[in-house]
Here is the input.
Amino acid sequence: MQEVPVRRSTRTIRAAVAVAAAAMVTLTAGCSAGLGGPASSRAARDGVIRFTFAPDPIWDYMNETGIVDEWQRESGYHIETSATWDEFGLFAGGHADIISTASFEVPGLEEQTQRETVIIGRYNAERSRILVRADDPAQTLADLKGKRLGVFTTVSGTLVWSALLKQMHDVNLADDYQVIVADIQNLSNLLARGEIDACICYPDLSAGDLREGSVRPLYDGKSSAELFAELDAPGHDGPMGNVFVARKDWVDGHPGEVSAFLDLWERGLGEWQRHRDDMIERYPQHFAVETPEDIAFMKDYVAQHDWVVDDVRFDQKWAEDESSIFDLMRETGVIGDDVTDPQFLPTRGVHQ
Here is the structure.
């Protein structure tokens, strides 16, 4: 069994002060499958893409079904992969050309690695939701001021929820809640047992408790991305929980590799749309489900709330809408005015 760490960022929200004083809950998490193989120690070179990615069902599926090998033969490019949850570390060490992270964590990535970056593709929306116990009468998180709020990190999706909650209810996570950091895969169970009063939780890591009906989502089950689109960027599908980020100097010098990488992931997203149920059955560990009942629940849930985007490429309008999450976070005091928007490389609708 392996504890699942969360992505890091040097940017902090004001809630970090409260978290530092809160009780830290450490519990054992579910097993996770990796991509396999050690990190590449080779320097960047033409024709090779060094890609570091956390364990992922679409990537596993493309490898096991021969799609990656086929792409390498047809494109003439070779992809070297590294399996790790510490994508930042390998990127900082110069052992990766492309990694994934949340779009709103890219400024922290640049600060931490001292490398100029550019977002070249999108993958999935920030999918966390706020859950409460099923018998709790709360209609919004504002009804639970002063209560215990479980989070899996003070950054990542907590940043987005901090801005949204300030916008919707004029509440501040640090001042208005007892913020408790707990293991990402155990939050909903802690909630069901009454050890916390609400949580910012991933739906795929809460399947058993959601299926059993011991917990329920607030805000009509909407994720942070769905609420952000509704309130601030109509029609948008972000902010993104994962985008593909590359070193800018590498992108500038390797346009062919960038385009080929996006072609590969375009194929992967199409495979997800066609074989989503098969992937959930093949790789239940990626969705924190084990029993047939939970697997069936997750299939149905994802069919209704799919967080994977349809197209890895994006246009300038999409980049502008995605950047507006930074406007909201600055306006609500979640990040400082000195935090700049990330750089984007729109390729949809652009002649290649």
In short: Confidence is low (pLDDT under 50) at residues 1-42. The two ends are 45 Å apart (CA to CA). The CA atoms of residues 35 and 83 lie 5 Å apart. Residues 1-352 form a domain with the D-Maltodextrin-Binding Protein; domain 2 fold (CATH 3.40.190.10).
